[in-house]
Amino acid sequence: MLNVIIFGPPGSGKGTQSAQIVKKYNLIHLSTGDILRHEIMEKTPIGCVVKEYIDNGLLVPDEVVLKMLYHKASIYPKREGFIFDGFPRTIYQAEMLDKMLERHNRPIDVVVSVEVKEDELFKRMKGRAVDSGRSDDNEFTIKKRIDVYKEQTYPLIDFYRNQGKLVAVNGMDSVDVVFDHISQAVDFYLNKKNILP
Ligand code: AMP
After folding, report:
1. Active-site positions?
2. Which CATH number fits domain 2-192: 1.20.59.10, 3.90.180.10, 3.40.50.300, 3.30.465.10?
3. What would the pLDDT profile of 39-96 be if each residue is shown by its tens digit?
4. Which terminus, N or C, of the chain has the lesser number of Cβ atoms within 10 Å?
5. 118: CA distance to ligand 1 center in Å?
6. What is the pTM of this model?
7. Can you say whether residue 5 is alpha, beta or left, with left for phi > 0 and alpha for psi between -120 and 50 degrees?
8. In what order do the strands lie in the sheet containing 28-31?
């Protein structure tokens, strides 16, 4: 059982890395951004509520995200574990996630922080905007999302550092090199877990 959080600003490559980590460690990928976009696509009542937040680069309210996440996580009770991508994004979400996992006695094991410089984030997101089809990949919203990250999400770095779970990886490297570094961090954790009682 392994529970991983992949953490980083928008455009840091969390989604790309998650896809590879999922395969290697047989994890369930829980991306709150993907789940929310699916709700919007299906035009569900939740989708109608969250669209405005997403289109404006704002965080969707904690209660909405948490309810959706609990529901999704409960569908897969017996798998190897989860990779949480784009979640948590506030201290409150992180505290609630800890509580949920504590109830199942399956805490977060490793938090991988993918670090990318701000000008590179802009460049990447503007670049992908052409093909992504995402309504929030435009210049105004990209800037807003990065500001929101700095204000509301960045403090989680200290939250997880204080728990001794944070591993920083340089996200400026190529996709394969970043993946190698993430794998090394996860393998190191798994080995340590096997050796220590
Ligand atoms: P992402 O695909 O992770 O970049 O998320 C896209 C958008 O979905 C974000 O800009 C937020 O509006 C919303 N979102 C995704 N995850 C969360 C979360 N954990 N809490 C609040 N809003 C979220």
Report:
1. 14, 89, 128, 134, 145
2. 3.40.50.300
3. 999 999 999 999 999 999 999 999 999 999 999 998 886 667 999 999 999 999 999 9
4. C
5. 18
6. 0.94
7. beta
8. 28-31, 82-85, 4-7, 110-115, 166-170
